[in-house]
């Protein structure tokens, strides 16, 4: 039984890791749409929510770097979203999302 | 001693919620009583309104059957009644989620919040052991401990579920408002809830406040999973009646330790399980 559960654990960790690249790619796509005005500004909440989810989960799966990089992006968006985000802020977020992608082992 | 249950009454079920009748309340306040010690203990455990499952968990050293028999006798003697309007079937979205966080000062909350924040920042978790001492309810011997994981990150919920199974718990999972209601409507006893604060369509603190207001869930221990290790967040949880906090992101070992502490199982079991290394 334990062996089966341990295999289940390993599979869940692998699934989570495999989900990270597409999730980060979707974040970057949304960032691009928000920066260009293609997406309504209200969708910045989706960006925050997904970053929050990655912050809160990465370390638990053994990927502490993912949590740290997602946290840096989350904090930046939270602070920046208090006012209108300018081109420089969107560029800064692009770099933070690249850091997040690099944090995936 | 009271006489037995009358034949016309349906049998008592674990999900039934009991309340004291005026006659039952009078028994507790009178100087003399004809009740046995066990009957008195069950009357005290009803404490206004309690589910039969909660009474079974609280009546230490007594079998489920013995408690059910005592409850049936007390009901037959019209000392307790089934408060049918509060059974699990009464949980609907409009009613259950109408509760909001209580307001106003909580005695000693400031100091406890400060201690809680310090503990969260230091250890990644904080458990209100004082509250557990008052409401501690161990499951009946031999019954599995059921833990409801309310978490919308699907991978994380699955991982926690597997770890809980490895530790011998029976996990249940809910990711949103509708799933939470569905889980709470289930008749099986619920021993602990791990509650994420940020959920897609409902606030975790509102879920906690609603549980604390509901007869069936008012004493079920709840550990909040939160990214916010702030004094305000801890105060908010104290107001709502949380039993513990875990800061996200957490190590699974920290979570299991907090679960065992809140359930009064710390120091028992086979120890903590290591997370599978990345890439395995």
Helix and strand layout, with pairings?
The complex is a heterodimer of chains A (105) and B (280).
Chain A: H1 2-36, H2 44-57, H3 64-80, H4 87-103
Chain B: E1 17-20, H1 22-29, H2 37-46, E2 49-51, H3 52-58, H4 64-76, E3 80-82, H5 93-96, H6 109-123, E4 125-127, H7 129-135, E5 146-150, H8 154-166, E6 170-174, H9 177-185, E7 192-196, H10 204-213, E8 222-226, H11 231-240, E9 244-247, H12 252-262
Helix pairs in contact in B: 2-4, 3-4, 6-11
Describe the structure.
- The complex is a heterodimer of chains A (about 100) and B (about 280).
- Chain A has helices at about 1-35, 45-55, 65-80, 85-105.
- By secondary structure, chain A is mostly helical.
- Chain A has one domain (about 1-105).
- Chain B has twelve helices and nine strands.
- In chain B, the strands form two sheets. In chain B, strands 4-9-8-7-5-6 form a six-stranded mixed β-sheet, sandwiched between helices. Chain B has a three-stranded antiparallel β-sheet with strand order 2-1-3.
- Classes of the chains: A mainly alpha (about 100), B alpha/beta (about 280).
- The interface of A and B includes residues 6, 59 and 62 of A.
Main features:
heterodimer, A: 105 residues, mainly alpha, 4 helices, 79% helix, elongated, B: 280 residues, alpha/beta, Rossmann fold, six-stranded mixed β-sheet, 12 helices, 9 strands
